[in-house]
Structures are given as structure tokens and as C-alpha cells.
Amino acid sequence: MTKNQAIIIARFIIVLFSVLALSWVAAWVFKISYPFWIAALLVWMFYPLVRLIRSKIRLPNALAVFVVLLISLAVLGGAITGLVFLIIWGVKSLSKIIPDWIQSTTGQAQDFFNNSILPIWQRLGEFMNVFSSEQQSALQESISSMGTRLASSIAEIGTGLVNGLTQLFVIVPSFLLAFLFVFIGFYFIGKDWEKIVTRVRTKMPVSVWDKAKSFRNILRYRVWGLIRAQILLMFIASIIVFIGLLILGTDHTLAVAIVVGAAEILPYLGSGTILGPWALYMFFTGDIGMGIGLAILYGVTAGVRQAIEPKILSSSMNLDALAVLISLFVGLQLFGMVGVFLGPIILVIFIIFKDIGVVRDLMNFIKFGFKEEPDSVKERRK
Prior knowledge:
InterPro entries: AI-2E-like, YtvI-like. The chain is mostly helical. The protein has helices spanning 3-56, 61-95, 98-128, 133-191, 193-203, 206-248, 253-263, 272-284, 288-317, 321-335, 339-355, 358-368, 375-381. 88% of the residues lie in helices and 0% in strands.
């Protein structure tokens, strides 16, 4: 190994540890102050609307920010109200058929117990009479231990559900408090947004500020592309489920299709959260044809999503389809279901850094240090 190679490796290690340290610090800072970062992001996204209101209606900046905040609250409240009405409509529609489902399920379970479980238990009692008293005791102890383990497993599941509900009730007030800080921060950050931007710009080198502006413009384009892609995937899933349920002849087709489409926002699970249990219920109640139809519908929906998701994400955000597919898989492996969202986001950030020249600058530092590129390299780049 030459001295130059050793220096390059040392610079690479420095860059790697610096990136990891900065990522850790950024994650820690975001964790303790995330409402204000979210508020700053919202101000950045909606500030063009603030400028428009300020110029068209001739309002002061603080009042224009307040108007945008009210508009945002109205839109959010309308969306939540619409979602609540949709859920109520779906629940009312399902409530008309759930009693019949419960009655049918109860009858099926009773018939299954009388025709299958009870005869087996009776034959088991007759079978145990063949054994000696010691063998019967050992068999009864085995059955008792199995029952104990089953009861313990059920108790653990129940405890987990209770703990989950408890954590949910603890999280909800914290979420509402963070939500309040986001909107308060939106007003105060938006009111002084131009002062904050001017102060940051005067403290930054010109080259860093230019890259920050480029990052902002590209990020805005790709974030809206990601949102468009998710909405399109949900719409496609709703259409597929709607057509499938029409073919199967189910009731309340539109309501179920909308709910299944909304479930597609869940990473990895998607439509399976609705269609999977529904298909199992149909198999259990003896409606094998409907169960097979729902299973096929779920397979088609999941297959179409897996086939078109990389393409839609790549076209909406101007990314390579293979890179998106790899980011989805790697994110799933590293972060679980949340990684299905985090993977493409990390890929987008990396591609933006590459587009604005940050990756190139780091590579130049690793190769050449703080010196400028040699003339030969500049000529090859041209």
C-alpha cells in the first residue's frame, strides 16, 4: 500500500464516521424538538401561499400567516370530518350484516364443536380406558400441561393487547400536545420566516447556500411526487377491489373498496388487513367459493401493487425503478414495515445530494483532500 492510498483510506474513514455522527446528532436533535422541525417544514411548503395572500389581499405578513394557518386547520378539519363520516357510513353499512355474520359464525362454531370436537373427546375417553392407571395419569398430565401452556399463551396475548391499548392512551395526549406545538410553531416561524432565512443565508458560505437552495427545490418536487405516487397506488387498489367485489357479488362494494384502498397506506400489509381476515372468515363459515374469490382478489391486488409500485414511485419522483425496488427491500430488512416508507425517503435524500454535487464533493475530498481537482480530471469530466 502506498502512502497516497493510505491517506485516501484515512479520509474515507473520516468521512464515514463524520456522516454517521452527524446522522446520529440530527436524529437526536429531531427527537427532542420534532414539532418545531415539522412546523418549519410546513412553513417552507406553504410560504408561497403566504406570499400570494400577502400580495393579493395586502395583508401584513403575520396576518397572512395566520390566515394560512386557519386555512390549513379548515382543510385538515374537513379531511378528518370527511374521514369520520366515511367511517361512520361504513360502520352503519357493515352493522346491517354483522349480526347475521355473528349468528352464522356462532352456529358454525357450535356445529363444529358438536360434530367434530365432542366425538373426538368421547373417543379419547374410550381410548384412555385401555391404558393402565399410571399411563392414564401421565396422559392426563400431558393434556393438562398443554392446556396450561395454551392458557398462558392466551394470557400473554391478552396482556399484550392491554399494554398496547395502555400505550395508545398514553401516546394520544402526547400526540395532541405535539400537534398543538406544531401549529403554534407554524405561526411564529412563519411570521419571522424571511428574517430567519436572511439570518441563515448571511451565516452560510455562498456555495453552501446555493446547494441548500438546490436541495430545497429538488426536495419539493420529489416529496410531492411521493405523495402523488401513494395516492395513485391507493386509487388503483380501490379500483381493483371494487371490480373484484362486483364480480363476486358482495354488498356495500364501494364502501369496502374505499376502506381497502385507504389501507394501502399501511406499509407491507395494505389490503391484506381487510381481505385476509375476510377470506379466512368465509372459509370458516363454509362459504368456500367466496373465500377463494377473496383470496384471489387479495393476491391480484398485492401482485399488481408489487409490480407497479417501483415504476410509479420512479416515474413520480424521477428515480430509477431498480433503485426504488432495492430501497424498498433494504428498508424493509433494516427497519421493518416502517422501512417501506423510510427506504425510498433515504434514497430520495441520497439522490438529491448526488444531484446537487455533495456526493461528488465528498468523493473529491476523499481522493484529493481540500485541494482542487487536477486539471487532467477536470478535462475528463468535461
